[in-house]
Design goal:
This protein is α+β, with helices and mostly antiparallel strands. It has four helices and ten strands, in the order βββαβαβββββαβα. The chain has a single domain, classed as Imidazole glycerol phosphate dehydratase, domain 1 (Ribosomal Protein S5, domain 2).
Length: about 200
Amino acid sequence: MRSANVVRETAETRVQVELLLDGVGEARVSTPCSFLNHLLGAFAKHGLFDLRVEAEARIDPDLHHTIEDVAIALGQAFDEALGDRVGISRFGYAIIPMDDSLILVSVDCGGRPYVSVKATFSKTRIGDFDTDMVEHFIRSLANSSRTTIHVLELSGSNDHHKAEAIFKALGVAMKNAIELQPRAGGRVPSQKGVI
């Protein structure tokens, strides 16, 4: 089973993430940020990941560190669950609409973190979530999972729809990238022979 259980504990936060890559999309997410809970639920549902997240903010007045630490722990869980990445597709993408919004996300689980987010938000907050944390979450996730992630807003006007479409597209793109390929014959998807 491709799974991981990660605990990240700092003076500011405590985060536990349980991840099953080959799940059915069941999510149990409990953080102090209700909109993050919503986004992670959408990510898991459309990525078909079974995900449990428990996060506690100890000293974090604006939830910046809590959101960041959830992303770091989730990325570590992906990295651990993927192991040596033998037999995975490696690349995945999704173009996801949500009403007015159309978002493209492309990923490479090839071991090198890189992030490009080209999406704009008209407001600074969506509920209890700072919109600048969308990119920061993705950057933290990419670094700790050793994944390249590109996000491109093709169209959109509603901030909630754009953020949610980004997380749905990220889930679908990751699902496609980590899918096992029977024809790969147990090989690493790299000419180098390692990731």
